[in-house]
Amino acid sequence: MDSFRSLVLERYSCRNYDSARPVTPQLISDVLEDARLAPSACNRQPWEFWVILNDSKAREAVLASYGREWLATAPAFIICMGREEEGWVRPFDSHSHIDVDLSIAAEHICLSATEHGLGTCWVCNFDPDVLRRGLEIPAGLRPVAIIPIGYPAEGSKVPEKKRKAPEEIIRWFL
Predict the structure, then answer these.
(1) CATH topology of domain 4-153
(2) Residues 6 or more apart in contact with residue 75 via CB below 8 angstroms
(3) For 143, phi and psi rounded to 5 degrees?
(4) Is there a contact between 135 and 56 (Cβ–Cβ < 8 Å)?
(5) Does the predicted model carry a pTM greater than 0.90?
(6) Whether pLDDT at 75 is above 60
(7) DSSP assigned state of 124
């Protein structure tokens, strides 16, 4: 990528993967290194990233937690987990920042994957209890997002970005 803006414009929610083209553990490790370097509140780094490649039982757990057919085309998944006891809590209102921290790290995953020619999609609309049982996730570890990752299927292209106009979302105090 020539610039950060180019990278951002190239990233999209990929929902069709080339299931015949595997993603190597080394490539996923490279992507996860960028997630590991993400900022977090008070540098707590309250995360774990579970990578699911070839384990059929683990794949079935992911697929069962989110019943969309397209998900099965992804050759790999990264489960973004929050370590509840390690998250920073704002003292004024007791708001835990685990979701914020994991969101930053997850977007680092998505942008890094894009830079490596891979597609990703944030999946938050999954049943955490189904995933917890299927992956035997211990108490104190909360699944925050599932990120399918793989090479986009042939013919996939970046859709037009439909975003609100700047004047709808930016308020200046000059």
Answers:
(1) NADH Oxidase (3.40.109)
(2) 17, 18, 19, 21, 22, 23, 53, 149, 150, 151
(3) -70, 125
(4) no
(5) yes
(6) yes
(7) -
